Amino acid sequence: MSYAEIEKMNEKNALNSLSPEDRPYEKCEQNGAGSLTDRELLAVLLRTGTRGCSALELADKILNPAFLQHGILSVHHWNMQQLLKINGIGRVKAIQILCLSELAKRLSKATASVRLDFTMPSTIAEYYMEEMRHKPQENLKLVLLNGRSQLIGSSDISKGTVNSSLVSPRELFIEALQKNAVYIVLLHNHPSGDPTPSKEDILISRRIGAAGILIGIKLVDHIIIGDNCYKSLYEEGFIK
Q1: Which of 108, 126, 143 is where one domain is finished?
Q2: Could you give the CA distance from residue 60 to residue 149 in angstroms, rounded to a whole number?
Q3: Does residue 66 belong to any structural domain of this protein?
Q4: What's 222's domain CATH number?
Q5: Which domain holds residue 73?
């Protein structure tokens, strides 16, 4: 018997050992994927558990770790090293979970791209929300636009605390000039989840806005990403 056949048999036995109400494959087939709970959805993707721990119990460990209280959003907060410390999670399952997190972010971004308008802060925040709101450190992103406010490109400028001593307008505008940008947008996240701009955030925006006027590249907005919420310094009146 091949390894694949043994694995398939073990998977079948593991599923059959569950009570009928705890068989997510059957539940999905009968009632649709929307009928599954978060733990059941994750258990389906994990496929199998380990000795003494079902796929559903593994899902619980991932969704409700002691150091996080995010439920399904906990999937975004694991890294490879942390996952491998969970009994029953090996390299393959860890990679599956990391890929699930990335897939969710890309699906969210693709959905938001339909409404994306770089003259509307709400659509910009929606587009970058899932990419940025789960990061454990502050990240500053530079978005480059052409004369029709269309996206040319974007790049991460700094990682860690975003402050005026670490953010160099010179380096920022060198990249903008190289890409022939006419407008720029800044975004950064607040890991606390509160997007209220700090004095430092306002200072950075004013410095970069003033430098942009001299160069001929306009700072359109500086958007701060919180936990599924945002603040636009343009909408708040800090950027003219």
Answers
A1: 108
A2: 45
A3: yes
A4: 3.40.140.10
A5: 3-108
**Angle 121-77-39 from CA coordinates, rounded to 5°:** 105
Q: Is residue 202 part of a domain?
A: yes
Domain-located, residue 237: no
Counting the structural domains of the chain, the total is: 2
Q: Are 121 and 235 in contact (CB under 8 A)?
A: yes
Per-residue pLDDT of the chain (240 residues; tens, 9 = 90+): 554 554 455 555 554 555 544 588 888 888 899 899 998 989 888 888 777 788 888 888 888 876 666 678 888 888 899 999 988 899 999 999 999 999 988 998 888 888 899 999 999 999 999 999 988 889 999 999 999 999 999 999 887 765 544 577 888 999 999 999 999 999 999 999 999 999 999 999 999 999 999 999 999 999 999 999 999 999 999 998
Q: ∠ CA(152), CA(239), CA(208), 5° rounding?
A: 60
